Amino acid sequence: MAVDRVRWGILATGGIAAAFTADLVDMADAEVVAVASRTDASAKAFAERFGIPKAYGDWASLAEDADVDIVYVATPHSAHRAAAGMCLEAGRHVLCEKAFTLNSGEAEELVALARRHDRFLMEAMWMYCNPVVRRLKALVDDGVIGDVRTVQADFGLAGPFPPSHRLRDPAQGGGALLDLGVYPVSFAQLLLGEPSDIAARAVLSDEGVDLQTGALLSWESGALASVHCSIHGGTPVAASVTGSAGRIDIPDGFFFADRFVLHRDGRDPEEFTAGPTHGPRNSLRHEAAEVMRALRAGETESPLVPLDGTLAVMRTLDTIRDRIGVRYPSETD
Length: 333
Known about the structure:
It is built from ten helices and 14 strands. It has about 325 residues and is of the alpha/beta class.
């Protein structure tokens, strides 16, 4: 597919959809042409806010809109399989928020659909598109800190969230792991790939979702990763990668990093920071730009966020949930 301006449809009208759309409308090579919600009122209000010409009160109308090149799916992850699958079946390309789906089985179905219909599909793991995180990965891959020994990463929100909140709702895939833990797990697997063994413990809510989870991931190389997520305790949201010849620290906000510090034996610490053209640290433009680059190149997946990597992360999340005893109502044996 060769395009000049990529025409976007937005499926859902929540906070992350608004943040992504706000970045899209400021990009010269992007055009937001339609939005869909479960209600006409929500879709029309969102369309008026961002100057979007078409508003649909159902998902199917957006999926069938031939004026839309790609749909950004921003529903709760419990609806990702249905929403993204509908769009792929209708011939739309899809960028789907994370966690990609409730489980790896649903993820495999979406990947198979995309490949069957020759459509682009990518998990909206904006961390992987962040220029500072990309620089960190390149340094690690180049062996600057030697062989990776340990990875540590955390993401916790202070809360409290009431039982009625989506983060506490099992029907919406609630809990810390899928909403927040996907980031530290994805960070570890960005650097080390899929782990060979996983141990995990959690504190569960009365509803049966995880309030906080800690996991220890291990690899046959001897590398270990300690990851933690919480919805009832704020954490530094920091990450560290230790190798045989040094260490890299992201002191805060690791998944939308604007700086990191490289420590190497016998040398002064070196700080790497975002460049002047990278924009604010919370910008989703890097993710959008990668999607549009791939579409123009005729690619059906991004080398920065490969589908096999997304599937591997979903398998890890499945295993962690199995270890801690979290199962969602829609999941059957």
